[in-house]
Amino acid sequence: xxxxxxxxxxxxxxxxxxxxxxxxxxxxxxxxxxxxxxxxxxxxxxxxxxxxxxxxxxxxxxxxxxxxxxxxxxxxxxxxxxxxxxxxxxxxxxxxxxxxxxxxxxxxxxxxxxxxxxxxxxxxxxxxxxxxxxxxxxxxxxxxxxxxxxxxxxxxxxxxxxxxxxxxxxxxxxxxxxxxxxxxxxxxxxxxxxxxxxxxxxxxxxxxxxxxxxxxxxxxxxxxxxxxxxxxxxxxxxxxxxxxxxxxxxxxxxxxxx
Length: 258
What we know:
Blueprint: E1 7-9, H1 15-21, E2 27-33, H2 40-51, E3 63-68, H3 75-82, E4 85-88, H4 96-106, E5 111-114, E6 119-120, H5 125-136, E7 142-148, E8 150-151, E9 154-157, H6 160-173, E10 188-191, H7 192-198, H8 206-218, E11 223-230, E12 232-233, H9 242-256
Parallel strand pairs: 1-11, 2-3, 2-5, 3-4, 7-11
Antiparallel strand pairs: 5-10, 6-12, 7-10, 8-9
Helix pairs in contact: 2-3, 6-9, 8-9
């Protein structure tokens, strides 16, 4: 397996042209969300207004789903008011990977686009940049977003679990994936036929697990990356990152075993 050279940027795709080119390719936008009432509504509203025919935007997205992962706030109500279909996870939170699996089961698109629900100043460039490569190249099956990540007002420094856990694991265990800039990016688009075959790892191991599984099943050449610009979100304190790091480590070790 050689390194992929399929790098794109959101700016190279015109939404109107992309809408015409994706005819016949159903697209579902799915947001796993737990206690994201402060941001999920604005994201859903932006996707609906700029990327759906019903909202008056470019015809890029057919449905918007929010999986409410046992939120204790008004996430579900805010998402529903903004225009999303809300899928409840049940009384007990299952974790991010489980929420993503629920989204796959509930949506109907040929392309499933996952977006994080805590992003601030969300823009339609996320949808355009993730969808574009799958429309223009049928050999691409997975698109990972990458971006600059500010941290506490500094222009960069976000992605601490990525740099301290995910990338070292990739260097040691999956070196053919070393070209991937944001292996834990929540902004991901994948063909349904692929995720139906690979499944999704539980918890915060979902993104790394999917990346490794796709590389093994389809080759790294089937993976593309798209520059989405700047991504600002709610940065968690270091004390809350241990669970994420543990899930990433577990997903990697599960796939590294003979």
